[in-house]
Amino acid sequence: MDDLGTADQWVHNVLFATVDKSSGFVKLLLDANQTGTDPKLTLSKLVVWRSNAADNTATTLAQLTAQLGAPAYDMDASLGDSQVNLAVQNTNGFDANNGSGSGDLYVNIPASKFTGTGAYLVLYSEFGDGGNLNYVNNDGFEEWAIKTGPQSLPDGGSTLILLGSAFSGLSLIAGRRKLARNA
Prior knowledge:
The protein is α+β, with helices and mostly antiparallel strands. It has 3 helices and 8 strands; from the N terminus they run βββαβαββββα. The protein has helices spanning 61-68, 75-79, 158-182, and strands at 14-15, 25-31, 40-51, 73-74, 84-87, 105-110, 120-127, 143-146. Strands 1, 3, 4, 5 and 7 form a 5-stranded antiparallel β-sheet that branches. The longest helix is centred in the C-terminal third of the chain and has 25 residues, at 158-182. The relative contact order is 0.27.
């Protein structure tokens, strides 16, 4: 879900089965967009659900919670009322990432949090709604990415079939060699 709730071209369906969970974590990456003169940003809410619905039209946290129920992960539920303050470009001599197009924050959520049967992931985030030292969005939209890759799903037995075929072939070759020696 985008941070403005309006730009459908930035909202994508993510199948949970395509998410890399091989490390024991679901890995999210935030690309924050801030101006070079004011490069700080506050991540004030991060909530993730599993859902059976591919398309979701909710634009607020309350609507999502009403439609999807309890989330798999809620930053505030896990850590208490919390926020993350980011410096997303060169700040006070600290060379952070250079703005749009590069990652600014990794979030590793234990894969064990994602129980249930929902085929899709739904992510909700808010920026600039924190307490002390609150930094609001001052440039383009914030973008989230998710690591996809190795699956923990069985391959349907094709590996065993290939292995069995290889052993059968080797057995046939060994049998012919034995016949050739005895002849």
